[in-house]
Design brief:
Oligomer: single chain
Radius of gyration: 16 Å
Strand content: 35-45%
Amino acid sequence: MRKIKVLLLAAILAVSFAGCGREQTNGVMEAWVGAYSEEKFVNVTKEYQTKHDPIAAEGENKITSVSFRTDFEIASCAVTKTSAVDPQNATFEQRGAIYLAVKTSFDGKTVTVSTDWWYDGDDWTADYPIWSYLVCVKDTDGAEHYYYFRTDYGAAD
């Protein structure tokens, strides 16, 4: 009976997101713990490219936000790097970073990154449908935890 309730709840949530923006939770990779380094960033982009697919818009839905859960209480979070991605050119992402204040929030152990800026962006952003996000999440002890994900805005119909 419990499984039926869970499936029913999942179906209700799926229907409620139909035709509107949706929040994504999969496709986020734990990158590393500790200070930022360009070498760590390059390694994460390569690993993500081989092991993960970007979070993609589906049908008429838009990617409005991406949420992920940590295993620690969060003190703060921020997107530290947003980059255009060319899957055929690994170094493009390192050079394609833009300065963009991306809205982030947290509640307990869950981080939410607003990803809807792309839909309201300048025309040139449409030239790059895949974007990456590097998120720094600080725990209550002050340690920095980095998470990485990509979005594919061009996958929507």
